[in-house]
Structure formats: C-alpha cells, structure tokens
C-alpha cells in the first residue's frame, strides 16, 4: 500500500509540472466531500483496523 501511495504521489508531482495544478483540486475534493475510499486508504497506511 505504501508503494502504491508513493507511486501516486510521483505521478501527481510529474503532472503538476504542467500548466494545470492538480494537487489543490484533489485536496479540495477530499476536504469537501470526504470520500470513503480516502478514509479507508488512511487506515490501511497507518495500520488501524
């Protein structure tokens, strides 16, 4: 899971070099809508069941 998280962050940083900022858009989506997949992802990364 950590490798997948790392790879996603690498892809986002590569795309971020272009003229369209992706990171703020993704963060705004996560803060406003609180998707369940993000919460589950955080639990998997930090090891809580």
Throw out a few tags for this protein.
flat
In short:
This protein is mostly helical. It is built from three helices and no strands. It has helices at residues 2-16, 23-33, 36-46.
Mind explaining what this structure looks like?
- The protein is mainly α and 49 residues long.
- It has one domain (2-46).
- It has three helices and no strands.
- The chain has helices at 2-16, 23-33, 36-46.
- The longest helix is centred in the N-terminal third of the chain and has 15 residues, at 2-16.
- It is flat, with a radius of gyration of 12 Å.
Protein topology:
Elements (H helix, E strand, L loop, with lengths): L1 H15 L6 H11 L2 H11 L3
Shape: flat
Instruction: Tell how many strands the DSSP assignment holds.
Output: 0
Biggest sheet descriptor: none
Helix proportion range: over 70%
Low-confidence runs of at least 5 consecutive residues: none
* Overall mean pLDDT: 85
Strand content: under 5%
- Our count of domains comes out at 1
Q: N- to C-terminal separation?
A: 14 Å
Structural category: mainly alpha
Radius of gyration: 12 Å
């Amino acid at each position: 899971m950590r490798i997948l998280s790392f790879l996603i962050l690498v892809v986002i940083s590569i795309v971020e070099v272009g003229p369209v900022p992706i990171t703020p858009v993704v963060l705004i989506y996560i803060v406003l809508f609180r998707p369940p997949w993000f919460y589950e992802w955080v639990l998997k990364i930090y090891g809580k069941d």
